Amino acid sequence: MSFTQKHLLGIEGLAQSAILEILDKAEKYADLNLKTHKRVDVLAGLTQINMFFENSTRTQASFELAGKRLGADVMNMQLQGSSIKKGETLVDTALTLNAMRPDLLVVRHPHSGAVDLLAQKVNCSVINAGDGQHEHPTQALLDALTIRRAKGRLHRLNIAICGDIAHSRVARSNLLLLGKMENRIRLIGPPTLMPSQISEFGVEVYHDMLAGLKDVDVVMMLRLQKERMDGGFIPSEREYFQRYGLDFKKLSHAKDDAIVMHPGPMNRGVEIDGDIADDVTRSVIQEQVEMGVAVRMAIMELLSKNYSTKHKKLLS
Prior knowledge:
Blueprint: H1 16-32, E1 47-52, H2 58-69, E2 73-76, H3 90-99, E3 104-109, H4 114-121, E4 125-131, H5 137-151, E5 158-162, H6 169-180, E6 184-188, E7 204-206, H7 209-212, E8 218-221, H8 237-244, H9 248-251, E9 259-261, H10 274-277, H11 285-315
Parallel strand pairs: 1-2, 1-3, 3-4, 5-6, 5-8, 6-7, 8-9
């Protein structure tokens, strides 16, 4: 096994071989999810707790479905009424959860590094479902699986990531993963939405959409993260769409068989034209959602095996 981690906190610490192991196992679950009977009991008897400090529909539902299809006992914490709102610290929450003896803890948190802190305080495996502007590893992995299935490979592709790069944990995880796979990556967006340390990533930066999309294989659009913006990063949504929103005119500069991606939720008419989002010949957005369940099933199976092996060694 190449994937030997106890936790999945980010893409940064994963070797190329570990990424490929996850994707190969996810391929099998993608096939299973097309069958009438989708359940396998590889996590039977294990407990999975989904703890989301930020609102989420797509990711939380995907993790819940993945856990149930693997036979785990799944609990979603209702944080709106929890002790977090009463002033309990993150460490106190971790200790409380630890006393419940979970086997898998899925965490989304608005602050970068919070999931890593939790992982240090609990005895179970932790999966980062997105922490602040840091990372969203399972999104990058499902994006990678979607690209590989659509293009037949995951290396030496020209990939454009467009939009709000500065506030996007999805962009950061994808930069790390796609870079490990020897792809040529272009970042496209206004200067106000580019991170200050962008030169460290070894990518091409474009502020002109038409130039940036020329001859690319993959067009990955990003959501405008208004909740993380403090100030005027864009003049208006209308002007943003005219310059950086994906429409058929801009897409025509990419390769004829270029695929279009978006992590969701989409702001139609702001980041992407609705007709492109719904175009089954170019858009793989629904496939991304489908691959999300398969990837999360693969990760949870691999983590449970690693956790079980280490747990047995401690008891022996």
